[in-house]
């Protein structure tokens, strides 16, 4: 376990991750398996800790975006299936094969280049179908035929899965989603006529697995809701399952003073006291991901909402207090104090963005403290030399 010497930290509740997976399992039924999506350092929560909690709770496999993310998980000792959902350079497929990492493919040139490589082990592949996301994937049955022939010709290549991704599963209007389902159905019919071997089909992200639990598939890819956030306000309104947020962000007051009327705070002196006012300094700033546009948002102190005043600096910001507090008083930026709560959804709305961005934007300079049933079980501090090779 690492340690840290600053008074700002992220708390990640691993029991919430497990709770959310258990809620999903009940919702989709026990025959369906779960890819725990842990790309982008598990949406900023910490990949290895989340991956372990997810697998302990019954997820069958892990999904990431980058080969580097998959290799890191393998090197940390994860032996479960790992899928890279993004595009990987064809020449890097040999490393994937060596480490038993499954890759996504959809281009004829790509598969031809891979077939020219020396592969130490069989390479597991998932064919991506673009049924309307317009990002990655084949779009026609002709392309499918070409790719299947390429795979069939080379016994080192194993078609492990086929998948697609929905663009609007979190939307109140289901028309585009239904279009994608229709396209998927057509391609699946053709596929089944061409391919007899068993493959794993997976289509649903969090939104689709919450709203359409009866989708015909072997796996779902569970991301944002594993972390306890609803994919959109629409889905939050429907609340198919209860979720517990895993992520919270805290700090502690490091300085308190009383400003007199007319005295100002921070760069640009954008805030000036209109009467005698208690002001506290909080040691977290835009270099930690608490970006300048969050000026004015509330934080929690002593179970009450207090506003950030003046510009947010690189490492610090100031808040207006209702009374004098001691140095060391806890400040909660995301999370709960008593009856008050500031959610990632609220921060996202303040920034006019989606909740996915909020935990992702809290930089790794902020240590992550992992808790399970109120107990600290691990601490990750990216600045600790424990985690770095020295020069
Ligand atoms: C990120 C991602 C997911 C997970 O989506 P959530 O909305 O977070 O559940 C699923 N599939 C693909 C292809 C992704 O890139």
Describe this structure in words.
The protein is built from 12 helices and 21 strands. It is an alpha/beta fold and 391 residues long. The strands form 3 sheets. Strands 1, 10, 11, 14, 15, 16, 17, 18, 19, 20 and 21 form an 11-stranded mixed beta sheet that branches. Strand 7 (157-164), helix 8 and strand 8 (200-202) form a beta-alpha-beta unit. It is elongated. The structure holds pyridoxal-5'-phosphate. Pyridoxal-5'-phosphate binds next to helix 9 and strand 9. Residues 37, 39, 85, 165, 205-207, 221-224, 231 line the site of pyridoxal-5'-phosphate.
Q: What class do helices, strands and sheet pairing give?
A: alpha/beta
The CATH topology label of the largest domain is TIM Barrel
Number of domains: 2
The CATH architecture of the largest domain is Alpha-Beta Barrel
Mean pLDDT: 97
Strand residues, percent: 25-35%
User: What are the bound molecules?
Assistant: pyridoxal-5'-phosphate
Q: Kindly state the percentage of residues in helix.
A: 25-40%
Low-confidence stretches: none
Q: Which superfamily, in CATH terms, is the homologous superfamily of the largest domain?
A: Alanine racemase
Largest sheet: 11 strands, mixed
Give the terminus-to-terminus CA distance. 22 Å
Which shape, going by the Cα principal axes? Answer: elongated
